[in-house]
Amino acid sequence: MADSDDKLGTDVQTSAGDGAPTQHPVRRKKKRLMVLGIIVAVIVIIVIAFTVWHNTPGFCNAICHEPMDTYVESYHSGDAGMLVTAHAKEGVSCLDCHEARLGEQISEVGSWMDDSFPVDENGYLQNSNASKMASPENCLKSGCHDWNEVVDSTWGFEGNDAKYNPHSSHQDGSITCGDCHKSHQDSVLYCAECHDLTLPEGWEEPSNE
After folding, report:
1. Across the chain, what does the average pLDDT equal?
2. 3-state SS string over the chain?
3. pTM of the predicted model, to two decimals?
4. Which of 62, 138, 167, 177 is an S-S bond match for 134, by CB 3.0 to 4.6 Å?
């Protein structure tokens, strides 16, 4: 009987000194590991969910309504004149073009907190780097557009004479992407300043101002 009691005490439980049974150290360790595993799994799920959300347009104006609402609304607008519409149809999201940099994001949070985002009457940032975004360096980076394919596909664009190609013009490269393509506003056909051309849907003629 004593041998049986000793075996039970070794494999199942130990005495706490006051007669109360306590859980065996091995079982306590397994329980702790299980709890730790659950905590780690929950943290991983939260991080993954946040990362997915962070890559969606909805994240941009979840907190920073001013000035991000205007940009997110344009993403979902379906306006054919805006470059962002073509990107949205292809599943291209904000961070695919606007690379998230920690230093810039911290600065943006600071600007949001002290309400120092300068915007115009339409809700667009006045110090926007749109011209930098719509540049060959950004548009032709790996995984985005191929220049030769762009040129080949735009001869006689929109039913215009086959000799016209805005991506192979007589301007010798002085025209850059942003001169025509506007991501969150209606694009402008720069060539129509001199030539009588049919504009793509939703596009505007250049202003003579």
Report:
1. 81
2. CHHHHHHHHHHCEEECCCCCEEECHHHHHHHHHHHHHHHHHHHHHHHHHHHHHHCCHHHHCCCCHHHHHHHHHHHCCCCCCCHHHHHHHCCCCHHHHCCCCHHHHHHHHHHHHCCCCCECCCCCECCCCHHHHCCHHHHCCCCCCCHHHHHHCCCCHHHCCCCCCCCCCCCCCCCCHHHCCCCCCCCECHHHHCCCCCCCCCCECCCCC
3. 0.65
4. 177
- Alpha-carbon gap, residue 110 to 103, rounded angstroms: 11
Residue 58, token pair as written in the block = 């909805």
Give the chain's largest Cα–Cα span.
Answer: 107
Question: What was the pLDDT predicted at 155?
Answer: 96
